[in-house]
Sequence to fold (335 residues):
Amino acid sequence: MKSFSIIIVTWNGLRHLQEFLPSVVNTHYEDFEIILADNDSTDGSKEWVKEHFPAIKIAAFDDNYGYTGGNNRAVPFAEKEILIFLNNDVEVPPNWLDGIDKAFNDRKVKAVQPKLKSYTDKEYFEYAGAAGGYLDRFGFPFCRGRILSSCEKDEGQYDTPGEIVWASGAALAIDKTTFEELGGFDDDFEFHMEEIDLCWRLRNANHSIIYTPESTVYHLGGGSLPMGSSRKVYYNFRNNLFMLWKNLPAGKLWYKIPLRILIDGVAGWRALLTGKFSEVWAIARAHRDFVFRLPIIHKKRKAIHQKRSHGILTPRMIIVEYFLKGNRKFSDFMK
Fold:
């Protein structure tokens, strides 16, 4: 039986803690601890947790370090074998750790994602991770159970455990020693795609990432950055370019990055024509900041590629499959 340190990052998320934290506390498992990584909340989050759940460890920070910085800074407080990075808007059933524990029986497995379903409509998969993540040929993320914004109903079609390309940061279990050896999350990402970058490095180190349907959690989504917000658009576009530049094999870097920027430009024009001017500006800023920070990202790329690099992109193009062919399901997409 493995032991688990459940790390929950929060910033002014008291209402989410009040709604979702009790389910985590009520987990039925022999050996686990909960760590609240508080990014300098001012809404009484720490005080409420201390009053209602005094057994929870609180790692209190002096600023809002985002998802990446908050989690990285909380890891030294963890005393168990496996880290679970759990969003503050996730509900868990009592026995959710049993399936994750079982998945780690294979020594090659260093990261596990449970089935991620919608908190508001529990019959459907949830956007952030569904039944495990993949990347198309230009680095666009998609999932078993979620293609772009289309989430499938869970009808048991993904009830087979198996290896995936990336595990969702909403509920990511990872071996603590391996996480530390890989350098943790990249702080430059702040929010979004940091888990995909981490999983890419994990695979480069020849480790396995597994999806297990024997554990299910329910994610509200949009707790930190609401869907459609300009900040979310900015981080998604900028961090995707960060991730690709860091991890793509050299033979693919020279043409995939320009093509990806061109595809982003098409998204920008689409936003402009539909009157989403804040989204246009977010994409433009994402490209600008990618260029400005490229020297820093390139140093990280050199460190990675001195070791080993694998391509993990599928040969499919998600925008072609979704918009031109009308494929809305993972099973159609991967034919």
Notes: DSSP finds twelve helices and 13 strands in the chain. The radius of gyration is 19 Å. The longest helix spans residues 250-273. The chain has a mean pLDDT of 94.
